[in-house]
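Good day; I would like, with your permission, to put a structural problem before you. A protein sequence and the structure tokens that stand for its backbone fold form the material at issue. I would ask you to consider whether the tokens describe a fold that such a sequence might reasonably adopt. I set the record out below, with my sincere thanks for your time.
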Amino acid sequence: MADLKSFAEQLVNLTVKEVNELAQILKDEYGIEPAAAAVAVAAPAAGGGDDAPVAEAAQTAFDVILKEAGGAKLQVVKLVKDLTGLGLKEAKDLVDGAPKEVKTGVTKEEAESLKKQLEEAGAVVEVK
């Protein structure tokens, strides 16, 4: 079991360059596609700089962040209330406290949908 723990630690500490080399070896020698290999080891390697593109490819949970309400604050409050299931006061507090997370740990599709709806209501939104 100690060998597996050591191996896992090595995978977690790989750089982006090493992940790419590993993906190439897995593809050439074992027939495993690089995308599958990148997903398996890229997320722990994320740390900024050159790591960002690989980390985004492996990211499965996204956060929708309200940066500001914009001009139509009342519409944004109503929409936040509907999208999150919060009460009116809690939705207003969230909008007033921007930048704040509206939803966390959602799929990319849901995050993009929420962003589009909030932007149509006049809000400034970021997906991380």
Summary: The mean pLDDT is 77. The two ends are 36 Å apart (CA to CA).
